[in-house]
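Retro notes, structure queue

What went well: the backlog is down to a handful. What didn't: a couple of records were mislabeled last round, so from now on we paste the full input next to the output in the thread. Example, using Membrane protein from Pandoraea eparura:
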Amino acid sequence: MKRTAIVSLTLGFALFVALLIWQGTGSVMSTLAVAGWGLLPIAAFHLVPLVLDAAAIQVLVAKSCSLRRATLTRWVGESVNSLLPAGQIGGPIAMVRQMKQRGMAGREAAAAITVSTTLQAVAQIVFALLGLAVFGISATHRPHDGLWLPMLLATALIAALLYAFYVAQQRGLFGWAFRLLSKLSSKRDWSALLDRADAVDDIVQRMYGQRRQVLASFLLSLVGWIVGTAEVWLILQCIGYPVSWVDALLLESLGQAIRGAAFFVPGSLGVQEGGYLLLAPLVGLPADAGLALSLAKRTRELLLGVPGLVYLHVSERGWRRQRAAQDSAPLPAATDSASL
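Corresponding output:
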C-alpha cells in the first residue's frame, strides 16, 4: 500500500470514528438497527443501477463483451473501489484485467474503461447539478441555503478537472504518460509499451467518434445515478425517517458528489459520513439519521463487495492457472516433410 493511501485511509478512518463519537455511537447504531433484515433487499436492489452501469460499458464494445461479462466486471470494479485501499483507481484497473482475462484485447479494454469512466463522471456531474437545481428551488423555504453556492463552485471545479482529463485523452494521454516515464527511467526499453499506449490512445479517440454509442453510454450512466436515488429512499423508509422522492434525490446527488470529490480517500471513508451529516438538515433529518444512512450504504457495500472480492480472487487464480498450463504445454511436434 502506498504511503499516500495509508495516510488518506488513516485520516478518513479517524474522521469516521470522530463523527460516530460526536453524534453518539449508540444513537446512530440504534437508528440503523431499525432497518434490520430490510438491508438485504436494499442491497439486492443495488443490482439495478449496477447492471445499468455495466450496460454503459458494454454498449461501447458490444461486439467484444456481453452484458453478463460487463456486469461481472462492473461488480468487481465497484467492490475494489469500495473495500480496498486503492482510491478510485483500483476499480478501473481491476475491470481492465477482468475484460482482458475474458478474451478482450488489453488495449481495447483499457480504452473502453477509460471512456466509460469519463462518461460516468460526466453523468455524475449532471446528476449533481440536478440535485443543486432541486436544492435551489427548495432553498427559499428551507434553512442552510448558504451551502448552495459552495456546492455549485465545487461542482464547477470538478467539471473543469474532468474536462481537462477529456482533453488529455484526446491528445494522447497514455502515450504522453509512458513517454514521461521513459524519460524518467531511461535505463529500461519502453518502446513496446509506448506502442501499446499509442494504440490505446487511438482506440479511445475512435470510441469518442462513435457518437451514438457515447450518447447511449452517458444516458445509461445518468439513468443509473437517478435510479440509485431509490436506494436512499428505501433506506430512510426502513430506519423510520421517510422522505419524499425529491428529498432523496437531493441527498443522493449531492452525497455522491461529495463522495466523488474525495476520490483519493479509499472508499471515501469518513468523507461520505461527513457529507450526509451536512446534508441531513437540508431535508429535515436529524444528524444521527444522516450517519445511519451512510452506514446503511456501507453495509450494502459489504454485502455485495465481499462476494465481489472473493469472485475477483477466484477468477485471478483460475486465470493464472490457465496461463501456467498454456506455458507448460509441450509444443506440437514438427512434421518431418521427408516422411510424407
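Agreed that this is the format going forward. Reviewer comment attached to the example: The chain has one domain: 26-184+191-317.
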